[in-house]
Write a structure and sequence with these properties.
The chain is α/β, with parallel strands linked by helices. It contains 14 helices and 19 strands. It is globular.
């Protein structure tokens, strides 16, 4: 298979009327961590954003081979972040209570990672099944008692689940559906797996929050789509899935949580939040090209501000480390031209990433437990969506005179 190809039609409405908006250059995939200083040898792919003039959906112009991105040596773990763990705990509790799931209910999680979300449904005595293509991560989930297929979610896996477990009361997914090239097929297969009165609840990053807060680094190769609610609701309606509720939740800086059911078996009232959000997006002109071009020009200003600040710090002989090596950090560092001449090391909580090197920059990743031993003058928070918990967990570093820098939406220094 080709390592990547150009996407010429909109993933939602199939229109070919796609318009180029923004280029963030060429980078290796953000999860391409290396064990040696060989990141300069990694293959780079275009990171260009396009806008559909027909339905107002935004997506990457190029699709990288999904096996290359997700199946081998994948390093993201849901359980590492306490914020995510708490998010999944609350989610499972609220969903079970609201819809009355019980020990006869099958919960299927698409892109289930290490099974953190499903573990909370299991504690509620529900039956659980995970599907995740990252073989090493699926192995962790299985070892923790969460039955997980180490595969992509497709027709074959759906048939296996139906044979082994039967139909699902709930199909859920968290920050996974933006990764999928054939999104239409995922929902068609989900409908096949779902009970007649079953529910699909999924979360995707909300592009409106990205635009307003300039969180451009959430644009990376694993994220093929950048969702607004209106185009997505229309897309789902076109495949006979009715959205009956929507929420904006905190993870990833702001995500859409979308609730839908099969059209033929729909018997719930539609929440006012559905029409209210559509009206809000229309008032913000999310269907206008200018909305996205303003985003592009403001990014250039933020890049100049941060780069100037970091250079001033290093010119004074001060040391700068970074914190967090999420996938999006590769986009941020590439766009801001940050390398090992500016950032000495990167602290990280995830043990699967420690002692590896960031793609494109050759910066070594070390354990966050060494922050007080190294005591850099400044720490640039690359995992900015966890700024609050990172600062809270490292109060001693601040007390000893260290300073954090939150890069987005505008550079901000956090001190004691």
């Amino acid at each position: 298979m080709r390592s990547f190809y150009k996407k010429k039609i909109c993933r939602l409405c199939k229109s070919a009327d796609l318009e180029f908006i923004l280029s963030l250059g060429k980078t290796p995939p953000g999860n391409s961590l290396t064990s040696k200083k060989t990141s300069h040898k990694l293959k780079k792919f275009p990171l260009d954003l396009y806008f559909c003039n027909n339905c107002s959906h935004s997506q990457l112009g190029h699709v990288v081979d999904k096996s290359y991105l997700f199946q081998d040596n994948y390093t993201y773990l849901s359980s590492v972040s306490k914020d995510f763990v708490n998010h999944f705990r609350d989610y499972a509790s609220n969903v079970v209570k609201r819809f009355g799931f019980n020990n006869s209910s099958l919960i299927v999680d698409i892109g289930s990672n290490d099974g953190t979300c499903l573990s909370f449904f299991k504690k509620k005595r529900c039956k659980v099944v995970g599907v995740d293509p990252a073989k090493n991560i699926a192995k962790i989930a299985n070892s923790n008692g969460i039955y997980t297929y180490p595969n992509f979610f497709d027709k074959n896996i759906v048939n296996k689940i139906l044979t082994q477990f039967g139909k699902a009361s709930l199909i859920t997914s968290h920050n996974c559906f933006a990764h999928i090239d054939n999104l239409r097929d995922i929902f068609i297969q989900s409908k096949k797996l779902l009970l007649n009165n079953g529910i699909i609840i999924f979360e995707v990053g909300y592009f409106s929050e990205v635009i307003k807060n300039y969180w451009f680094d959430t644009i990376y190769h694993e994220h093929l789509d950048y969702h607004m609610f209106s185009p997505l609701e229309k897309f789902l309606k076109g495949i006979d899935l009715i959205v009956f509720d929507v929420e904006i939740v905190k993870p990833q800086g702001g995500s859409l949580r979308i609730y839908c059911k099969k059209k033929d078996n729909y018997n719930l009232n539609i929440s006012n939040r559905v029409n209210n959000l559509i009206k809000k997006e229309n008032s913000e002109n999310i269907n206008k090209r200018k909305y996205y071009l303003n985003f592009k020009s403001n990014l250039q200003n933020i890049r100049s501000l941060l780069k100037k600040q970091l250079i001033e710090i290093t010119d004074k002989g001060k040391t700068i480390y970074a914190y967090g090596a999420p996938t999006k950090a590769t986009t941020l560092m590439n766009y801001f031209n940050l390398d090992d001449k500016i950032i000495k090391f990167i602290f990280e909580d995830n043990s699967l990433k420690v002692n590896k090197y960031m793609p494109n920059s050759n910066i070594k990743i070390i354990s966050s437990k060494f922050i007080n031993k190294h005591m850099p003058d400044y720490v640039l928070i690359l995992a900015w969506n966890f700024t609050k918990s990172i600062v809270k967990n490292h109060g001693l570093y601040l007390k000893r005179g260290g300073k954090f820098i939150k890069p987005l939406p505008y550079p901000q220094i956090i001190s004691k």
